[in-house]
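Weekly modeling sync, notes
Attendees: S.R. (lead), two postdocs, one rotation student

Agenda item 3: backlog of single-chain predictions. S.R. asked that every request posted to the team notebook include the full sequence so nobody has to chase files. The rotation student volunteered to paste the first one in as an example of the format we agreed on. Action items at the bottom.

Example entry:
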Amino acid sequence: MVPLWRTVVPVRITHVSDCFVPRTGGIESQVLGLARAQHAARDQVRVITATGGPQFLEFPVDRLSFPVPFELPVHPRTYREVTSLLRVNLPEVVHVHAGVLSPFAWSATRAAYDLGLPILVTIHSVWGACARPAFSAVGSWLRWNRVAMSAVSEVVAESMRASLGVEVDLVPNGIDPSLWSRSGVADWNAAPLQLVSVLRVAPRKRTGALLRVMEELRKFDVAALLNIVGDGPERALWERRARRADLPITFLGRLAPAELKLVLDRSQIFVQPSVKESFGIAALEARANGLAVVARGGTGTQTFIADGTDGRICNTDNSMAVAVSEWHSDRQALRAILEHNSHVPPSYSWNEIDYRVRAAYHRALTLGQ
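Predicted structure, as returned to the notebook:
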């Protein structure tokens, strides 16, 4: 068999995801970006999703949306509907994008499995304690060694191997670095320091840690401003607390990519407080813009941020504040990282990701024989 990643023959690929555009989020942007890259490479791409919206982008989209409260991406007849679509289109590989709680994706996986189609499952979230019993249940009808498994980072892959005991490929998230490269020359010595964070303002992302970092910087007598980009259920709460503490924090809400890039262009440091980050797309975009990245350790962000080269990896919230404080005192150290990040783009372009994905597709074909 000729590996799919070494042939110029177009491949019939069907992506499956609970969530897809026009929803916004990590999985949504990654499925769209990968599908567009594959379509540009002349592959025959389709997407099956439970999210409503337009039926056709550059490629066809089968939207199995169902009227349920809060527009949840679920469908009561997923197995039957997906089976019907797969029989008609007969893809060479089915690429499933899932987390732990992805009922649509896992039901679609079973449909593809029962049809005997090659399957690659990419996991986009860190599995917690519930993963082992949950996937033991899934394993009652699916033999994991017949499905190619992949993860967006080594952190995610480790949790998968512990739960499933199978080989897991690394298929990181991708971006177009040229869309995020810095416009013009920044004044890297400007004071106060310009900090930015991009996150969903929800408990899992630990917005409160950003306030603690800013409080510590004030104790260190560090002049710094922080812009928080994003929205979520806790935004009003943290805005009130930031005002009460008189912290120099501005909540900008959700921004379009072009608007976000303008914020990154005038910033120096990106701060990521999450300790359950499966990859960190926003941090990668900031890194592509040339910013120094400060992030918590033990997350997928370490896939592309090397401590001391691209930024700092910290074990505590306080050590994040210390890292920023040290850069404030030693502008030459900060400048070295900023210059490195501006002149050495991260190697996560869609061409590279597509190459890795095709290698994983080949393994899916091999396992499906």
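Discussion: group reviewed the output briefly. The two ends are 11 Å apart (CA to CA).
Action items: rotation student to repeat for the remaining queue; S.R. to check formatting next week.
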